[in-house]
Amino acid sequence: MPYLKGATVGRAAATVASLLALALAAPAADAASAEAGKTKAEPCMACHGENGVSVADDIPNLAGQKAKYIEAQLKAFKAGKRKNDLMNAIAPQLSDADIADLAAFFSGLAPTGTEKSKMSAKVAKTNVTFPEDYKKTYTLYHTINFPDRKQVRDYFGNPEVMAAVKAGKPVPNGGMVFVEVYSVKLEGNKPVTAADGFYVRDKLTLYTAMAKGSGWGKEIPEILRNGDWHYAVFSADKKRRDTTNQATCLACHKPLDKDDYLFTIKEIKAKVK
Fold first, then answer.
1. DSSP of 230-244, one letter per residue?
2. Backbone angles phi, psi at 121, to 5 degrees
3. Are 160 and 171 in contact (CB under 8 A)?
4. pTM, rounded to two decimals
5. Cα angle 84-75-217, degrees, rounded to a multiple of 5
């Protein structure tokens, strides 16, 4: 730097002091904003609650957590360093600014007792109804064992699904994938396996379904939206469980946008060859 003398030094010092004062007085351009975080938090509230108190015991509360902790965990989910099927699908959609804003918002909330939050009405609502005729008109295209849950599941696709996948087109409105979920027979604590490699069924315990309808996704936040797909769980007596948090299904299927949100699209393709 050139050497300055006399009044020049004084003017330079005054200029530096003025600029420093302005810098200290002005908010940083990338400063986290709790207000912005509140706007961005709607999808998070589907699981973590409107006031940062979660909707279920297996989901952590965020109210009152330190901002740096929330930020670090979201970045770990985004990078895949921390594993969780739902958060590993959601976090990569967040920018660093989004993460900082969300951390600022949730850290500023005060925990409100131990009562769980209600599910978000926008995400909890599902238009899926039980398909009474599925045994006659749907195609059984896949069976899979679930060792961790000691279950075996049968997957059915309705004619709209099977025809669309065969033609290489997106599933149209009215498409449905329907799943029968069975508990299995055990020897000790180990599932009994039949000659075909699948677990031996014990009881039908529930059904799960995903179906598509016109405009069904319009109220769901974009970060969770699966086009116009909705999800549902039905008990063995065919009654829909409206306590099911659809947000978990939406988040899990979200990364599959290139496959029309279908985990079993390869199996459908194999069936319709």
1. EEEEEETTS-B-TTS
2. -60, -35
3. yes
4. 0.78
5. 60
pLDDT, mean over the chain: 89
DSSP 18-36: HHHHHHHHSPPTT---HHH
Q: What is the dihedral of CA 113, 82, 119, 96, to 10 degrees?
A: 90
| Termini Cα distance of the chain | 75
Name the 3-class secondary structure at 246.
Answer: helix
Position 172: which residue type? P
Q: Which residue has the tokens 């398909």?
A: 131
Euclidean distance between CA atoms 254 and 77, whole angstroms: 15
pLDDT in tens, 43-65: 999 899 988 999 988 899 999 99
Residue 170 pLDDT greater than 50, yes or no: yes
Q: Which domains, from first to last, does the chain contain? A: 34-118 (1.10.760.10), 134-271 (3.50.70.20)
SS3 89: helix
Residue 17 pLDDT > 70, yes or no?
Answer: no
CB 142 within 8 A of CB 267: yes
**Residue for token pair 């207000």:** 35
**Which residue type occupies 163?**
A
- DSSP one-letter string for 130-189: --TTHHHHSEEEEEEEEGGGTEEEEEEE-HHHHHHHHTT-PPPTT-EEEEEEEEE-EETT
Q: Is 7's pLDDT higher than 90?
A: no
Mapping DSSP to helix (H, G, I), strand (E, B) and coil, where does residue 191 land? strand
CB–CB of 74/91 below 8 Å? Answer: yes
Least confident of 77-81, 87-91, 119-123, 175-179: 119-123
With H, G, I as helix, E, B as strand and everything else as coil, classify residue 200: coil
Q: Residue 131: which residues within 8 A CB-CB, separation 6 or more?
A: 138, 158, 176, 178, 209
pLDDT tops 90 at residue 231: yes
